[in-house]
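>> received
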Amino acid sequence: MSNPYLNPQRVCAALRTLELRPTRGMGQNFLVDDDALAAIVAAAEPNANDLVVEVGPGLGVLTWELTQRAGHTVAVELDRRLAARLREEFVSAPLTIVEADVLRVTPGALLEAGGQAATAPYKLIANLPYAITSAVLRHFLEASAPPSLSVLLVQWEVAQRITAKVGDLSILAHAVQIYAEAEIVAQVPATSFIPAPAVASAILRLRRRPALAVEVDDLDQLFRVIKAGFHQARKQLGNALPHGLATQGRPASREQVLSALAAAGVAPQQRAETVTLQQWALVAQVLR
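>> returned
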């Protein structure tokens, strides 16, 4: 049976019935591309043993695929009209609808809402609103119950930043890559959605690491130092890092900063995007 929620005419009719005018602020762009949908499902590989958390199910196009394959799905929807429609459409499916702001509910609470233990293994699958992508990633990756695998529809440029290599690194890249191995599975054109967003999207897959990418005693200290280094990202670190630390109320002398950079093998002329996570960890350790 083909997915009934892919039909553009049906999507438009449903939106009219619900008197729902998609808003950019809530990231309401509804997928109508069967190739993109198939790529998401293939990347996530849901099976009967899987517990899945879906963020932003919308009208149910991905929800339908998940309920055909996964053991149970917990779908988190903020819009009350969409949540009500999902309950009507998926009456007998292995599905729990949670009407809530995903950022205000812990992953463990979502699992419990689906009748599972708060520490049960699960996969995260989502079509994320662009405005909250970073916040949702941190919400799940930093949780006491993080997903083993995440497959996400995100803005193309955000996916590029998350998967960046040395020379193009950012705070976001480090914040994700410390927890997970990140890869872009496919690009999804704007025409794959109703309404079409202004930019292309990407299917991003994150595989949780068995341990953090670097061994650190204090994650907060590590990211304070990273953020300080990126405070003036286009400046050389010998100048940018002392200034960034000072703006945080944690001043360090230029001599202290140069010593920390040297210990990590980082030249003071380098810029923040060229410094690896391992090097930042050494800098943070010296500056403690």
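>> The first helix runs from residue 8 to 17.
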